């Protein structure tokens, strides 16, 4: 039980990867503070975890708002008396070249995918410094490491998130804080906001297009990425700081 007695805050848990991360952390004994804007699926996850004996609190809010970071971290500190691990996972996946992306969409993507992590880190770091230790994991993407066709602002936001992570690693390593980014490749499940813009045929075509291009011959699963996030969050990664852990089946090798 690598996370027994560890207080962990995870954002973007109502579906997909965040949900898989929360479930895996619960199995390994973590005390959880979960944040998402989607109330109903968040409530469902919380009851499922509580039934399995996990100590879990939750906060419904928009991670791009400073108030959410302050209130959610305040809640976690009141409940657990500390915050050992912060996992900034919430994200959206707007598509389009820069000509196809209007300024409001551009700004919203940067706010949700990048500013939110800055806000949560800014709120958590003073408490981690006081404790003399802390771990941050940010969910980036291979789209932040090399340009992906038609994913302009998404890629820019994830590249920014990688540099935010590295900046924190350099500035706060001496205070006992580790910060790392996870960079998933193409996963079996399309992100929820993008799925609303795709038909099932388009999803199938995407899977058939990408799978043969991956050296491992298939797309990744949320459970596989969650295992790598738990590695970075755990003491197993005690000397890993400022890294971008690419988990893409070799797609960008
Ligand atoms: N699915 C993929 O192929 C893939 C690949 C690489 C990276 N990622 C990254 O993994 C992370 C999770 O993606 P996913 O596939 O689970 O997507 P998802 O759409 O299933 O889950 C995203 C979660 O974030 C929440 N969220 C979105 N905007 C929010 C906001 N403003 N405030 C609070 N909560 C908000 C959503 O409600 C949802 O629960 C994202 O950061 C994404 O960029 C995903």
TrEMBL record:
Record-linked Pfam families: adh_short_C2
Signal peptide span: none
Annotated GO MF terms: oxidoreductase activity, acting on the CH-OH group of donors, NAD or NADP as acceptor
Matches recorded under CDD domains: SDR_c (cd05233)
InterPro entries per the UniProt record, alphabetical: NAD(P)-bd_dom_sf (IPR036291), Sc_DH/Rdtase_CS (IPR020904), SDR_fam (IPR002347)
Protein family according to the UniProt entry: Belongs to the short-chain dehydrogenases/reductases (SDR) family.
Name the record gives this protein: SDR family NAD(P)-dependent oxidoreductase
Species of origin: Agrobacterium salinitolerans
Taxon lineage: Bacteria, Pseudomonadati, Pseudomonadota, Alphaproteobacteria, Hyphomicrobiales
């Amino acid at each position: 039980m690598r996370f027994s007695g560890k207080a962990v805050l995870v954002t973007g848990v109502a579906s997909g990867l965040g949900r898989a991360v929360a479930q895996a952390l619960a199995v390994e004994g973590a005390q959880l503070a979960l944040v998402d804007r989607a109330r109903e699926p968040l409530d469902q996850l919380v009851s499922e975890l509580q039934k399995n004996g996990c100590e879990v609190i939750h906060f419904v809010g928009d991670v791009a708002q400073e108030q959410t970071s302050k209130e959610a971290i305040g809640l976690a500190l009141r409940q657990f008396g500390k915050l050992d691990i912060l996992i900034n996972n919430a994200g959206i996946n707007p598509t389009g070249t820069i000509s196809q992306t209007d300024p409001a969409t551009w700004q919203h993507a940067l706010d949700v995918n990048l500013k939110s992590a800055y806000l949560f880190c800014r709120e958590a770091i003073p408490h981690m410094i006081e404790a003399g230790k802390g771990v941050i994991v940010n969910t980036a993407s291979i789209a932040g490491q090399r340009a992906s066709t038609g994913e302009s602002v998404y890629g820019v936001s994830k590249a920014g998130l990688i540099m935010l992570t590295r900046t924190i690693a350099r500035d706060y390593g001496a205070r006992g804080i580790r910060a790392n980014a996870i960079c998933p490749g193409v996963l079996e499940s399309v992100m929820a906001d993008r799925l609303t813009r795709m038909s099932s045929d388009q999803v199938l075509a995407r899977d058939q297009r990408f799978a043969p291009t991956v050296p491992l011959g298939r797309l990744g699963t949320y459970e596989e990425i969650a295992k790598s996030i738990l590695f970075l969050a755990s003491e197993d990664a005690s000397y890993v700081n400022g890294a971008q852990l690419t988990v893409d089946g070799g797609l960008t090798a």
